[in-house]
Amino acid sequence: MRFSLKPFFNNALLIALTLCPVSAFAASFEYLYLEANEGNSSGGHSALQLGDEIYHYQHHDSGLIRLLRQDKQEFHFLYRFVQNRPLHLSHIEVSEQTFTLLSEHFKLQFLAQDQQFKQLNDLHKNRVLLGRLIHKQSANNDIFLDADFSSALRLKGAGLFYAEQELDSPKKNEPNSNIRGVRFRSSLIIEMLREKIAQYHGQDYLLQRREQISNDIKTLMPSHWPVVTSILSKDNFPPAINSFADSYEDYLTGLVVIKVLMEAQPLNSDAYFVTSEAVTPEQKEVLKRLRDQLTLSLIKSVNSGRPDWGYAALVNMARLVAVELSLHLGLWVFIDDYAMDSEWISADQFAHNATQMGTQINDALTHFIQTRKTVLSPGGLTESNYSKLEMTANRYFELLNGKRHKAIRYIGEKALPTKSISLPNWLVPELTQQQLALALSELDSYETQLLQELAEHYQYNLITRNCVTELFRTIDQALLQKNKTDSGQSKPAELLITESTNRLGGNVSAYYNFIPYMSFQSVQDHYNVTQSEVLNSYRGQQLQKLYARNKGLMNVLRESNTITSTLYDYNSDDAFFVFFTDDTLLFRPVFGLFNTAAGIGQSVFGLLSWPFDSGENLKLGVTGVLMSLPELLFFNIRKGSYKYLSYIQFVDDEKATY
Predict the structure, then answer these.
(1) In 385-400, which positions are buried (b, 16+ CB within 10 angstroms) versus exposed (e)?
(2) DSSP label at residue 586
(3) Residue 2 — very low, low, confident or very high, per pLDDT cuts 50/70/90?
(4) What does pTM read for this prediction?
(5) CA–CA gap between residue 544 and residue 550 (Å, rounded)
(6) Interval 372-394: pLDDT, tens
(7) Counting C-beta atoms within 10 Å of the first and last residue's C-beta, which end of the chain has fewer, N or C?
(8) Closest CA to 627 of 578, 561, 585, 558
(9) Is the distance from CB of 32 to CB of 86 less than 8 angstroms?
């Protein structure tokens, strides 16, 4: 019998041909186009989805455009649900190498730009601090009147134990008790912690540590801002410079920790809240273990060499008190972790959106209970999980306050409590007028150059540098990254077209695609797009559900306007309008006339109410007119928004849809 290898080679060839596309296109990313709506990016918006991360550019008040990075679900919730924008998505197949190249480059650009603007903020803080030190050495004794000082320079965590300006005042000999003896118990816990630190480090340790930090403050030198040819020359990262202001804040925060310990300072009255939730015996055992972990961590942290040890110690001391109070009272006690600039909503706003707020309260309770169970599970007891429990508790009990007809903080929970106070009038670095003047001069030169380079890189322009052009420009930079040293660099345009064609299927020029919708069409025409889909906005989803049950004429008419709609409640972020025009083309100009009239009416009312609302109604009325005029020409921009939707509802709807 004659044996032939031909069938084997034929089969191998067939397998190879089958596998080739898989190896060539083993990954994909998504190009997103969001339709227009009132508010940010009213002309539409574009973004790039790389795995579970979404990158997009936004214009900021500074006049610069910045790269943002968001979690996929967070982005979709914000734009599709809260801002009610349909999302057009194109899947683009690429190789694993190209996906990694794009992902790493966008990540690098995000981190670089984040560092650039952090340094800009550091410069401002340093300038404010130098101004204060120069003033303190001047002959006049006037109060330092820099309006930025109290906002730019803050001691994070100090507000957990002290009220504003309290650090500069003598300690009050007030009774160490309040409701349920919380204040006394709080002070006693700090005193016991101080004794354990003395046992571990020695009786005089805190005095020695205070002396050491005081000497560090006296000898602290200003940051040296070097004169360089290009600050953002290497991968756009500015040089790492230790911030004079940050170091000063860190040292003062360390002194606050020692002051809290030595004076057994109790928690500030607004730094915690006592719930009505009972602590079960099982939960008490978990809290006891957490108490022991926090105590050991604090004993060691007071001797830490980390510059930010003080803030971490203040947070952990506050949490230690909260845990001890929970054990003592038999009720859950938590530290208030809302940011000081949290967004508030009034009792009237809460009542007006009672249904949605009720949903959010139920969701927050479910989340709180689930997170509490996690802490009780094997291996669940970690500081990270306790931090999550603290956040969910803050969210739930803050929302409950709305049911008691109180204004509440709607957005602002933090993983770490950040209550801060302005700097006390304590020790300052011992610097001469000449040293301070020289430091300020160096800072001026460096800041001028940094601002100039930032403007060169990120100055916003409606046509040449916007949220769309910068996406494609960053893609181009990523594709050319590996070819910087090649001889082809002399012809970057040709090299870019070749690279883009090989990796993406074609090239989309940033110069000719500055309109979000047009850029989406260009991606469809030039990239390896294997699938396109439209993800509905919140109202679109709800209309689909409603019409699936009954698409009668009465339902259509009722949902066509904001007055009778069951799916939309007017909120103050939207200018007043009458008819939805995003889901109708034929009647759009007619509906647009009514909407324009509504905008004019709100503007007239705004003129009359100007003294009472600072022109807010006038601003919304003018916006309403501007959003309605395109409707007269069959174009739709405004779609309404849903400010108080539940994030958990969004996640559940997504699971049900896909």
Answers:
(1) bbbbbbbbbbbbbbbb
(2) T
(3) very low
(4) 0.88
(5) 10
(6) 998 888 888 888 899 999 999 99
(7) N
(8) 578
(9) no
